[in-house]
Amino acid sequence: MSERQAPVDPAATAIQDLYPEEFAWCYGCGRRNSEGHRLKSYWDGDRTVARFTPQPYHLAVPGFVSGGLLASLVDCHATGTASAAADRAAGHPYGVGPLPRFVTASLRVEYLRPTPLGPELVLYGRAVSLSERKVTVEVSLHAGETQTVRGEVLCALLPASMAEHSAPGRAEPDPAGRRS
Amino acid sequence: MSERQAPVDPAATAIQDLYPEEFAWCYGCGRRNSEGHRLKSYWDGDRTVARFTPQPYHLAVPGFVSGGLLASLVDCHATGTASAAADRAAGHPYGVGPLPRFVTASLRVEYLRPTPLGPELVLYGRAVSLSERKVTVEVSLHAGETQTVRGEVLCALLPASMAEHSAPGRAEPDPAGRRS
Lengths: 180, 180
Prior knowledge:
The structure is a homodimer. By secondary structure, chain A is α+β, with helices and mostly antiparallel strands. Chain A has a single domain (15-163), classed as Hotdog Thioesterase (Thiol Ester Dehydrase, Chain A, Roll), CATH 3.10.129.10. Chain A is built from two helices and six strands; from the N terminus they run E-E-H-E-E-E-E-H. The first copy, chain A, has helices spanning 67-89, 160-163; strands spanning 41-44, 47-52, 102-111, 121-130, 134-143, 146-157. Chain A has a six-stranded antiparallel sheet, with helices on one face. Chain A is globular and about 45 Å long.
């Protein structure tokens, strides 16, 4: 095994940091997106975990977090979980080679109770069914001791039609650019 | 009818612009949130419509819009539709008095095909079932001629427990503030 491919500590290296360079731009979790949320998900035993503290502007009504932001966190944590779970199921040790990139086919989010704005939020993910190209992930989101959100996400391996803009020689995105 | 309460043109005044001042902070659609997406939804016959052009940083992978952002647009367009539909069902002419504020109880989003980043997106909403405190809204999202997303959202009237931080005398949010 080459030095470049040495396995890494799953609790220290985020799943999203193992996405291929050309697929690391996601608004929710891409390490290369300077304007995004940059969610980071980690293996934690047989589940995944992510922590995120919303900004003051991430509100729904005063005192509570936007449901759209919460859906976005569930979405990215789920696709990250799918990616790492599919790679593990293929027999690869964590951290060796880039992870396969999954996207969302469908998303269901239940807002069990309002999520307070202020505390760090913790998301857990678990792959509950898995094939080579599709992974179903269950996500729970917690504020302190209280679960406030439940999510179920059907993730699909990135289709070839979505990879075309990432081919070598294509211009890279400019996340900091603004439309006029 | 006083001048202040004169009905307004539903095609010219956004639903979100009729939310009460204290509930107009939403990250997705609040007119008072300087850091948010500021989605605007309008009545258009018996349905609602919203138009939104994602920024270059709202991407999933290069060339395509983030599924989390799309969920957020569906969410805010649905709660806006619920608000206006409930108000209409109560017999109020559009634009008279503040609209009731709805929040999301559950959200289902199906990504029918990838949504290209670049064109203006158009969302349509329709209230398909309605009671005094709950409205189910179906949303479709289109890029040009192509529907790319289907959403179904169960909206609930803002519960009293979520209004407590908006009571008179409470400090207003500071969306532009950042956590250290």
